[in-house]
């Protein structure tokens, strides 16, 4: 018999389930993970995908994920720097999304070129009964390297390099 999970562990599992639903292109699972904002308590879900405006309301948020999943041939998330904080019925997860995605295929039946991207994310959850539901997601692209990285003399310039062009 396994020990009961803590709230932090349950929140981390819910957070992982969010990314797994996107990887599988599972719109049904995605719908089950998000908070229902149709109640009278005034709660409205929100989402900011990197480069997108704020999306408000469950229908708009779920529609955005359906669009992303339908137009992405392959995507995989490797979550790092995961931090979970729980305060009562609300939880905050911050993490780095190390994303590997496939572009459009050049020939039918083949995966297009793979592209990597780093996004820092904040996911807010609310407890509903025994489950933790996503209340808000905010993802921002990582455009600069961290000061503690020692990749060379120009590491502080970030991945774009000092002239703003694409890095190696």
UniProtKB/TrEMBL annotation:
Short name of any one Pfam family annotated for the protein: SnoaL_3
UniProt-listed Gene3D superfamilies: 3.10.450.50
Protein name in UniProt: Nuclear transport factor 2 family protein
Region (Disordered): 139-168
Domain SnoaL-like: start-end pairs: 11-142
Matches recorded under InterPro entries: NTF2-like_dom_sf, SnoaL-like
